[in-house]
């Protein structure tokens, strides 16, 4: 952990960040904290405003624990004496200070940021593998954790890792952050830099952009998968969600005063938001992709089957066939995006094609579970109506018979997507079992009822089984050879979060256990 003097940090920050001239604070800063309960002697504490509580209410606790100084937002009242800095935006101050505290690690790496509604995790995973195959030391950062250059998958850190089984959930902590808060994000980049990593490929969520968790980072490439509706509980409406995503594509909301190098944009011309961004971006500062005839990396045609995917792409007019063992038709878009990002990072098209041949599936993203059963079993993270639509369409394209779907919706999240997800299920699946996802503080039965309403509204029949383990078992019963079973919503997650407890739960492990036991025996066709 570095030790940096407070005055050294403040001198690098713009004057307009502060409400008043910062005091001269010649004190050593030994760490950065936004949780007063974790403050240690010498830490700089950021009192962040929240939806439920203002961090200013915890300044006294942070000082009792030995905080060297405190940053608050605006004119929030603060108890007790001690070094205090008032910022116009405490989150922006935290992001900039974190980047400086860790020595601006993004300047020593080629940092790629990927945003979009769906596909961020898979695209980042594929880009990391393409860069590694091209001889670069690359890491991917996102919902799954940190994918290292040697293929190891690590959790973000003990500070952001999922809680132990049996623990009482703490709403202030993120269980599996797509993009963690700025101190952990910058600390992770610094750790990768110090280990000799050359490329970092990061998923950047709309929450992260709205809360400026990556602000002050020096990106080499920023990319868009596609945009549909998600997280409207947080962003209030589609316009707010779109505005948050747009922050990754403008200097003043992306890197601010610490951005010094030009940034290249990779944009999807098949998406209306991508087209808008492309229209505002100079031609020499962007690489476009899509089916659109003007795309620099153009999708010509593709096929997806049980054995993998074949894509025909044109790279600036040069045609190339790419084949991969990765399955799932919706992955064609993710693979197309990944190939374009790698191309924008100077990986030659033929090297991309060679790397495609050895791509590994992404954990929990159209992950096929094989235990000798005569039907297809797929686990996927799909948790939006659009994502579920793509998932089930991909399963159908495998040439299966009936599709049994087990899924739920998370609690304390966008309630508006529950009905639409039920409607998609009714259109795309033959048997639907609604169960619990991560209900968190909400009543699991109420969540399931909202999803079920969407199913019945679209003319479908629904079963409700709130116990997820029992729902998986029920769904496997009666499957015939050639059918498909899909467990959606949790993907590679290894816990289930309730209001009063956290329990170990992994759809993949549960299904392997069930398929190896008394369940899963197919009846004759």
Structure, explained:
There is one protein chain. The chain is an alpha/beta fold. The chain folds into three domains: about 5-90, Udp-n-acetylmuramoylalanyl-d-glutamate--2,6- Diaminopimelate Ligase, Chain: A, domain 1 (3-Layer(aba) Sandwich); about 105-355, Mur-like, catalytic domain (UDP-N-acetylmuramoyl-L-alanine:D-glutamate ligase, 3-Layer(aba) Sandwich); about 365-515, Alpha-Beta Complex (Protein-Tyrosine Phosphatase, Chain A), CATH 3.90.190.20. Helices cover about 30% and strands about 20% of the residues. The strands form five sheets. Strands 10-9-8-11-7-12-13-14-15-16-17 form an eleven-stranded mixed sheet, sandwiched between helices. A six-stranded mixed sheet has the order 18-19-23-20-21-22, sandwiched between helices. Strands 3-4-5-6 form a four-stranded parallel sheet. Helix 4 (about 120-135) packs across helix 11, helix 13 runs parallel beside helix 14 and helix 14 packs across helix 15 (about 445-455). The longest helix is centred in the first third of the chain and has 14 residues, at about 120-135. It is globular and about 75 Å long.
Q: Which properties best describe this structure?
A:
525 residues, alpha/beta, Udp-n-acetylmuramoylalanyl-d-glutamate--2,6- Diaminopimelate Ligase, Chain: A, domain 1, UDP-N-acetylmuramoyl-L-alanine:D-glutamate ligase, 3 domains, 11-stranded mixed sheet, 6-stranded mixed sheet, 30% helix
Give the gist of this structure.
With 525 residues, this protein is an alpha/beta fold. The protein contains 17 helices and 25 strands.
């Amino acid at each position: 952990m570095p030790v940096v003097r407070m005055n050294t940090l403040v001198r690098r920050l713009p004057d307009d960040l502060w409400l008043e001239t910062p005091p001269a604070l010649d004190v050593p800063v030994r760490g950065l904290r936004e949780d007063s309960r974790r403050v240690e002697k010498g830490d700089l504490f950021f009192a962040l405003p929240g939806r439920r509580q203002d961090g200013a209410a915890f300044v006294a606790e942070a000082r009792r624990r030995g905080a060297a100084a405190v940053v608050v937002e605006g004119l929030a009242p603060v108890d007790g004496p001690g070094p205090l800095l008032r910022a116009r935006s405490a989150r922006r101050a935290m992001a900039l200070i974190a980047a400086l505290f860790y020595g601006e690690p993004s300047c020593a790496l080629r940092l790629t940021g990927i945003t979009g509604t769906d596909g961020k995790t898979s695209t980042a995973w594929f880009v990391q593998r393409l860069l590694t195959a091209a001889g670069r030391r690359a890491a991917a950062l996102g919902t799954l954790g940190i994918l290292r250059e040697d293929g190891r998958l690590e959790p973000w850190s003990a500070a952001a890792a999922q809680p132990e089984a049996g623990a009482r959930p703490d709403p202030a902590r993120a269980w599996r952050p797509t993009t963690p808060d700025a101190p952990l994000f910058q600390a992770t980049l610094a750790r990768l830099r110090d280990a000799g990593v050359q490329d970092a490929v990061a998923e950047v969520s709309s929450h992260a952009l709205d809360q400026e968790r990556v602000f002050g980072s020096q990106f080499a490439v920023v990319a868009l998968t596609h945009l549909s509706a998600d997280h409207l509980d947080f962003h209030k409406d589609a316009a707010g969600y779109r505005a948050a995503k747009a922050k990754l594509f403008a200097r003043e909301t992306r890197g601010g005063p610490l951005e010094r190098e030009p940034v290249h944009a990779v944009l999807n011309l098949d998406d209306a938001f991508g087209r808008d961004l492309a229209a505002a971006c100079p031609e020499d500062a962007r690489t476009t992709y899509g089916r659109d005839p003007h795309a620099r990396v153009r999708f010509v045609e593709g096929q997806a089957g049980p054995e993998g995917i074949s894509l025909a792409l044109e790279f600036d007019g040069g045609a190339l066939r790419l084949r991969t063992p990765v399955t799932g038709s919706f992955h064609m878009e993710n693979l197309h995006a990944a190939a374009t990002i790698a191309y924008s990072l100077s990986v030659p098209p033929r090297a991309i094609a060679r790397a495609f041949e050895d791509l590994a599936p992404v954990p929990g993203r159209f992950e096929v579970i094989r235990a000798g059963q005569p039907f297809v079993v797929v686990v996927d993270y799909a948790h939006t109506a659009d994502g579920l639509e793509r998932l089930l369409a991909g399963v159908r394209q495998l040439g299966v018979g009936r599709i049994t779907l087990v899924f739920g919706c998370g609690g304390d999240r966008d309630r508006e997507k529950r009905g639409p997800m039920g409607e998609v299920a009714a259109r795309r699946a033959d048997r639907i079992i609604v169960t619990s996802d991560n209900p968190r503080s909400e009543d699991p039965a109420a969540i399931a009822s909202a999803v079920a309403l969407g199913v019945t509204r679209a003319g479908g029949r629904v079963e409700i089984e709130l116990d997820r383990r029992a729902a998986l078992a029920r769904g496997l019963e009666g499957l015939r050879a050639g059918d498909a079973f899909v467990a959606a919503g949790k993907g590679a997650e290894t816990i289930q979060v309730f209001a009063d407890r956290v329990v170990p739960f992994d759809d993949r492990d549960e299904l392997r256990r069930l398929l190896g036991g008394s369940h899963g025996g197919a009846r004759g066709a």
